[in-house]
Amino acid sequence: MDIPIEEYFRYHPPTPGSDRVRKHDRINALALEFAKAVDVEIEDPQCKQFAIFALQQARMFANQGITVDEIRQNLNAEQ
């Protein structure tokens, strides 16, 4: 791993001046929009539950990816 494993288990507030908050907000808004569509368009409760759970996971990993990108950029800037 090019990033120390401990970095994956810490809270990383956005670096001042970074675009990270905007990126997180965009991912969250799109995930919510998709979740609302799933809620309206799917009747089967089990399929709906699985779809929304998968969407929650996708949102979580996308947001983690945004944070990891910033961590990587900060580590590279220090070198």
Automatic annotation (TrEMBL):
<dbReference type="Pfam" id="PF24729">
    <property type="entry name" value="Acb2_Tad1_hairpin"/>
</dbReference>
<protein>
    <recommendedName>
        <fullName>Acb2/Tad1 hairpin domain-containing protein</fullName>
    </recommendedName>
</protein>
<keyword id="KW-0547">Nucleotide-binding</keyword>
<dbReference type="InterPro" id="IPR056098">
    <property type="entry name" value="Acb2/Tad1_hairpin"/>
</dbReference>
<feature type="domain" description="Acb2/Tad1 hairpin">
    <location>
        <begin position="1"/>
        <end position="67"/>
    </location>
</feature>
<dbReference type="GO" id="GO:0000166">
    <property type="term" value="F:nucleotide binding"/>
</dbReference>
